[in-house]
Specification:
Number of strands: 7
Mean pLDDT: 94
Number of helices: 4
Subcellular location: Cytoplasm
Shape: globular
Order of helices and strands: EHHEEEHEHEE
CATH class: Alpha Beta
Number of domains: 1
Strand content: 35-45%
Keywords: Acyltransferase, Cytoplasm, Ribonucleoprotein, Ribosomal protein, Transferase
Organism: Mycolicibacterium gadium (Mycobacterium gadium)
GO molecular function, one term: protein-N-terminal-alanine acetyltransferase activity
Distance between the termini: 23 Å
Radius of gyration: 15 Å
Helix content: 25-40%
InterPro entries: AcTrfase_RimI/Ard1, Acyl_CoA_acyltransferase, GNAT_dom, MshD_Acetyltransferase
Length: 154
């Protein structure tokens, strides 16, 4: 299987929403319109993972602030359950962190999402706080994680 990484397109928004529903059921999965709005913003960048012509993963990061030094926030990462465990999520994180080279990066992750937490820790993220009931629909808590400036994403 060959996975190709590139820019997420507006035509991918419906598939992203479909994957969100599979991955984040019960936690306010993002609808198609949320992805379309994100893709229009100049300070937000998305990467897509595709096999043949099918979108199997996506990741987005936003630049915070208007002046250097910038900080960044990872907005969302998702990989089709049928393709998980094959390094796609790791590659997506690598791709978006390249944009934030030399900057602080933040993210939120469910406290019970052990695979994602382990992935983020492998990139140098550390837990810096707890957000109670961050996921309003389910009431699940989230950790806020932070990665200090690094030149290399891995």
């Amino acid at each position: 299987m060959t996975v190709v990484y590139g820019k997420l397109k507006p035509s991918d928004a419906a598939r992203c929403a479909e994957l969100e529903s599979l991955l984040f059921e019960g936690d306010d999965p993002w609808p198609e319109r949320a992805f379309l709005a994100e893709l229009k913003a100049k300070h937000i960048h998305y990467v897509a993972a595709r096999t043949d012509s099918e979108l199997v993963g996506y990741a987005g990061i936003a630049r915070l602030g208007r002046a250097r030094p910038y900080e960044y926030e990872i907005h969302t990462i998702g990989v089709d359950p049928a393709y998980q465990g094959q390094g796609i999520g790791r590659r997506l994180v690598t791709e978006i962190l390249e944009l934030a080279s030399g900057s602080v990066v933040f993210l939120e992750v469910r406290t019970d999402n052990v695979p994602a937490i382990s992935l983020y820790e492998s990139f140098g993220f550390v837990n810096v706080g707890l957000r109670r009931r961050y996921y309003r629909a389910s009431g699940a808590d989230a950790y806020t994680m932070k990665r200090l400036p690094q030149e290399s994403p891995s």
